[in-house]
Amino acid sequence: MELDWSIFFAQFISGLCRAMVLFLMASGLTLVFGVMRVINFAHGSFYMLGAYLAYSLTSLFATTPGSFWIALILAPLAVGLLGGLVEYLLLRRIYGKEHLLQILLTYALIFIFGDLVKMLWGVELRIVNMPPILSGFVALAGQEFPVYYFFIIGVGFAVAVGLWLLLRLTTLGKLVRAAAEHRSMVEMLGYNVNGLFTIVFMIATWLGGLAGVVIAPTVRLSLSMDMDIIIECFLVVIIGGLGNIWGALLAALITGELYSLGILVLEKYAMAFLFGLTAVIMILRPSGLLGRGVN
Amino acid sequence: MDATGKSKWIVGLAAAVLLIAFPLIIERLTSQYYLYLTVKIMIWALFATSFNLVLGYGGMMSFGHAAFYGAGAYCCALLLVKTACPVWAAALAGPAFAAAIGLVIGYFSVKIKGVFYFATLTLAFSQLFYILVFKWRSLTLGDDGIQGIPVPECISTLESYTNYYYFALVVTAICFYILRRIVQSPFGLILNTLRENAERSTFIGVNAQKHRLIAFVISAFFSGIAGVLLVFLETSLSPDVLKWSNSGEVILMGLLGGMHVFLGPTLGAAIMVLLNSFVTSYSEYWGLCLGLTLVLIVLFFPQGVGGLVHERLEARAKRKTA
């Protein structure tokens, strides 16, 4: 069989798109782990909330021209505020305790948020309309691509650059990196580590909410979208190295492409490639591609 | 025999008599539904107790045990529906297959250091198994599920649950006996030391990975038996048995009843099954109830109901001796 390069290219672009959504999610997951040493199992729930909020906001402002953009700004903000509340009211109580209790607390949130979404939005599949300006197609190398693909890739790229600037140049970023290295030292220097944790968790859940809004126009929103995404995110952070944002970016790119190109080989079971890769990484480099720590 | 040993025997004997007489009492008093519910409690109790070998005794945070429960169930059901395999062989193949899946998932999961890796990996692998069963329609019938699984007449639940009740009781009792022996054996004690301090145990020459893997496979095997018992009870099967929430429920059972007491998960299973039957008859928000219970336990009673009772009893015993 002769390989059709244009199909290959098309899958490459869609893989890039997938990778960027995964990166938006995994960066939040890994940021929280790097700083607070807690895995947020409910990260997918914040993503789902972002998507459903985008649905409500776009329907509410359906007559306003920029409804999608309003949702793009407001929904992640609301999700981030909710995240701050969750950190302040719940997570704060269990930092020093057993790992099992920490995991179970965030795990419990999957159940709670899942049912809250069911209560508020019902079980029907929901659709978010694409903003008109992004709903066209562009021709590239003999193939037509949705403009929206490039929007997703752009958002992912912007967030990667933004996170880099935040961590490298701002005081907040320096504190985050310092707290990841040595929490008690930062505390001794007189900084409010508790407040820092709340801010980090808000940023992480904001990223989750943003991923949800961005993905919303391309899928049908359903109650299982929280678990669907979190499993892939786990694989990404394991491959990249827990706690490392750039590891998450690298791993997201690899898994996104592996999945999209894998579809050409094994249509239904492309997920299996991701698990295969994870297994190989675990044998060869158990701490992930880029080791530990936020840098 | 001292006084506490004697009272333990009396309690055990009374429980056995009660369990054997239970169907006769139920038939007089109320509907068969409660017999069905009791069998369900037994199945979940077996599942939760075998899971507790991994979490409570081994200290390994598996978030993917539904995979083994479902593997046992699916293997047995598919053999019965698609082949001329005799029932006993299918019933044995279920747990064996579950143990094999446990070996594969366990091999990778125990290899890696760090509790968070273990938790995320087991959840991810079990979800892979769920997706596989869901999508491989030609083999598993996907989300249509398998209906009308043939069950031998002697334990059929068509007319009454009584026969099946005794069958499940005997199977569960045997499994409990074996699990109890495992927990009390030198192997079980090593598992305990690994939970308490893995580093020290390694220094005195314990092969941590090997022991953890063995415990994981044993646990998968018995979870598979629970899955087979479920198949015979329901005579139908859907991918829902493999859902991630089942792994969560079994954790909550252990936590609720107390993970460090052998019968703790059984108590948890009884509470959860009854609560589930009560809540789901009134509302469709079982998950919310589950999540809130979990949050409350984590924040306020991390030792569980069984742990609380256990602590009280020990405190009282201490006061008596003092």
TrEMBL record, chain B:
**Compartments it resides in:** Cell membrane
- Signal sequence residues: none
Keyword Transmembrane helix assigned to the entry: answer is yes
Keywords of the record, alphabetical order, are: Cell membrane, Membrane, Transmembrane, Transmembrane helix
- Record-linked CDD domains: TM_PBP1_LivM_like (cd06581)
List GO terms (cellular component aspect). plasma membrane
Q: How does it sit in the membrane?
A: Multi-pass membrane protein
Protein name as catalogued:
Branched-chain amino acid ABC transporter permease
